Amino acid sequence: MADARKDDIAIRIRGLVNAFGDRTIHNGVDLDVRRGEVMGLVGGSGAGKSVLLRSIIGLNKPKAGSIRVFGQETANIDAEDMRGLQLRWGVLFQDGALFSSQTVAENIQVPLRRWTNMPHALMDEIAAVKLALVGLPKDVGRLFPSELSGGMRKRAGLARALALDPELLFLDEPTSGLDPIGAALFDQLVKDLQKGLGLTVFMVTHDIDSLKATTDRIAVLVGGKIKVGTFDTLIRDPDPWIHEYFSGVRGRAALGA
Amino acid sequence: MRNIPPVVHAETPATLSLERRGDLVRIVAGGDWVTPEASRLDGELAHLEVGDAGAVEIDGTAISTLDSAGLWLLLRTRYALEKKGVKVSRFVVPERYGPLQETLERDGPVEPIVRVPRHYSLEHFLARTGKGTVTALRQGYDMVGFLGRVAVETVEAFLAPRRELPFPALVHQIEETGLTALPIVGLLAFLLGIVLAYQGADQLKRFGAQIYTIDFLGVGFLRELGVLVTSIIVAGRSGSAFTAQIGTMRVNEEIDAMQTLGLNVTELLVVPRILGLVIALPFLAFFADVVGIIGGMVMTYLDLGITIPAFMRELESAITLNTLLVGLIKAPVFAFVIGLVGCFEGLRVERNAASVGLLTTRSVVESIFLIIVCDAGFSILFSKLGI
């Protein structure tokens, strides 16, 4: 762990191959995510953004290639080491993935209950701190996920992902389904938290405003491979899909903003 | 679960000490102030006595790792002291945690989440009972309304010249609910025949009346058990499928799409399912009757040594065509109940996945309940009619 901390790379992917049936999704993906940066991942529908995310967090077993998170290979990892990794990252799923039978506060406390021996009173305080962190009023803690709006569910999901103070945060389309104002607020929140908590953020998104506002670098999945650049360099990329993506009508609107 | 030691450990344990210099008290923190240490630190901080100190310094410069839980404990201590009127003259954490401190301080002293106690008073019990009763009655009322609508739509589907029954859908439903249910219905009826014959023979043997096992088996299966068992299996198999299918379509907004396209949901989704089941279930029940009696025949042969011709002779004297018909007449009614409840609950699904599961369970329980209620009704009716 001490060595991994010195390492500058949080996630290192080499030659990743994913295929379903005879359809190859990833054909030799190489990607480095540096510590402390916000990396955005974009790509067309079906390009394998979610599959890549799921491969990194161990929900999908890749066909070939290597994925190292904090210097640890995730492919043939034993359960104990995997748990160690899981405690160092937090994942925000698309619609929050809150446990519907528990209140928001209980949801945030799930990792605390399982992995620490905190007394109840302290857990209630920590849950309140996390709720305040993601900008939710404290009354929300007593509500059930079904009583929340989509934006609140995402924030609550983020609070749960942050429960154990992870170093690495995965966001799956964090602004999808939010109105532009809500999306902009969420972008700001991610940025603030990233700075405040010193997080490394890996974010799958479709939202070009969000990319521009939050990311340091962007990885584009095209034709089963990845191209990495900043917003400004990717605009000038010769690849037709990337060109279309960044200079389309929506892209121009984001640039003008 | 709470006794399991935490798997996350701090690399260097957190330290906490108190130094007094005149009326200045210094709270000195060091080591890893992180989540795994939080519970221990929480206890130590609770026992911290600053006495009548004029000023307090919270010095965290020696902290090697700090996370939001650890910082919260320090901030909380500061807020608590300030609230008591003690001056906190200095509050420092290592410079690299400046952004973290800024982030947490922005939210100020947060109040802990208040747990809602779950109370079980008499009042609560009565309220729940009342609510449950009203819900059940309202649902019964709605279901009668749905019954009427299905009846009207079915008749219209037959009569209205422009519309016709969606026959492919009907045939598909007969296949789904009838043909594919044959193996499981057959297997269960066969086993039930064996069990009944065995138990019947065991008891009747004591009076030397074992031959009446066959009467018991024939009458029991044809009048009651064949159709009842078949209906219960079909309620679990097809009734639940109806609710889940229609419910998923509801979640997917497919039902809304059909309505906006001017399609008739009842005619397209409900009528074929109910009609298909009404056609298929009597055949299934008849099949169960036959297989169940074969099961009994096998058992009486093995257990009592009654040969097949002897079994047949006894069976013929025990039952009449009416025995069979009395059983089978119930099948379409039960089928209608299963289909109606299944579709009704499916259409009540709300736009979330949990609702599909909830209503599917409810649909099965309700249809089995109604089947048995109807069966009791039939029993009373037949006994009054003397059949």
How would you describe this structure to a colleague?
The complex is a heterodimer of chains A (257) and B (387). In chain A, the strands form two sheets. A six-stranded mixed beta sheet of chain A has the order 6-7-8-3-9-10. In chain A, strands 2-1-4-5 form a four-stranded antiparallel beta sheet, covered by helices on one side. In chain A, 41% of the residues lie in helices and 25% in strands. In chain A, 45% of the residues are buried. By secondary structure, chain A is an alpha/beta fold. In chain A, a hairpin with a 2-residue loop joins strand 4 and strand 5. Chain A has eleven helices and ten strands. Chain B is of the alpha/beta class. Helices cover 68% and strands 9% of the residues of chain B. Chain B is built from 13 helices and four strands. Chain B has helices at 35-46, 68-83, 98-106, 122-159, 167-177, 182-204, 213-251, 254-260, 265-304, 308-318, 321-328, 330-347, 353-385, and strands spanning 15-21, 24-33, 55-66, 87-92. In chain B, strand 3, helix 2 and strand 4 (87-92) form a beta-alpha-beta unit. The two termini of chain B are 62 Å apart. Chains A and B meet through helix 4, helix 5 and helix 7 of A and helix 1, helix 2 and helix 3 of B.
Structure summary:
The complex is a heterodimer of chains A (257) and B (387). Chain A has 257 residues and is an alpha/beta fold. Chain A has helices at residues 2-6, 49-56, 79-86, 104-115, 120-133, 150-161, 180-197, 208-214, 231-235, 240-247, 249-256, and strands at residues 9-20, 23-34, 38-43, 64-69, 72-73, 89-92, 168-172, 200-204, 217-222, 225-229.
